[in-house]
Amino acid sequence: MTLLADSTEAAMFRGRRLRRTPALRSLVRETRLHPSMLVAPLFVRPGRGVREEIGSMPGQYRLSVDELGREAERLREGGVRSLLLFGLPESKDATGSGAWAGDGIVQLAAREVRRAVGDDMLVIADVCLCEYTSHGHCGVLRDASVDNDATLPLLARAAASLAEAGVDVVAPSAMMDGQVAALRAALPDTPILAYAAKHASAFYGPFRDAADSAPAFGDRRSYQMDPANGREALREIRADLDEGADMVMVKPALPALDLIAAARAAVDVPIAAFQVSGEYAALCAAAERGWLDRRAAALESLTSIARAGAGIIVTYFAREATAWLREEDR
Predict the structure, then answer these.
(1) How many other CB atoms are there within 10 angstroms of residue 320's CB atom?
(2) Of the residues 62, 81, 137, 198, which is catalytic?
(3) Is residue 56 part of a domain?
(4) Distance between CA 274 and CA 198 in Å, rounded?
(5) Is 198 tagged catalytic?
(6) What does the DSSP assignment read for 107-133?
(7) Which pTM does this prediction carry?
(8) Is 7 among the domain residues?
(9) CATH code at 317?
(10) How many domains does the chain have?
(11) pLDDT digits (tens, 9 = 90+) for 272-293
(12) Residue 208 in 3-state DSSP?
């Protein structure tokens, strides 16, 4: 009896056995974060020689086109391989015509990235009108409401212009019904990363400061998703795939880890997640006050997003996280 009891006790599960050393923990790690998964969002603005820090997003900048080219070179040298571009145009109008201008700010930026780093960097461009409209909404208006169907051809026109400028992937984020179908009809061979489950989130505040894209009136709850709706998020994802999306995104990331996991279980395409401006700003603010370790908290948050099922992570920590991960591999 004593031998049997001793044997049973010895065979008990003891997870600590595989946690004893850093090398052992690394060997059995289930989720592996890799720099190739990370996408760096960048903001481009008019001017020359401009590198303007964004007050609500420490370490992030609004860059003129020439500075953006230099930033792309620095990111490539640091190991970041993918960018997501957002533009601040010289002027705005009711229809957001700057979004499809041949000399639009993101079109110029895409060409500059190509000049600076060639094909070594994947260039993704956000496709929306909010940064280009004088009213700040994501589509054209009719009687103070967004006109979904009138917006679709304008989004397609913007995407076509961006593809012509050398963008590798277009990413429609306006949350207009049918937006992916409109882009797919215009661009049969261009990859589409659809912001499929984009919630009307409180975590977008710093981005709206950075991109000067806050709506002049009202809000975006009539077209962005209710954060409470998970089943609807999966319907949006399936609808975008039916319309021709190649990849889908959940946004924001940390408040929607359950939806990332559900999407990963439901569909067999690449899943992206956007660790948005408010998530970044909150971690930065806590780290500045000494409440969190910046590096540890950032990497833990990114690992949780990957563990939930995202194979692509858009994050303002992309540069730092790539450097940290490279250090760990040495």
Answers:
(1) 17
(2) 198
(3) yes
(4) 9
(5) yes
(6) HHHHHHHHHHHGGGSEEEEEE-STTTB
(7) 0.94
(8) no
(9) 3.20.20.70
(10) 1
(11) 999 999 999 999 999 999 999 9
(12) helix
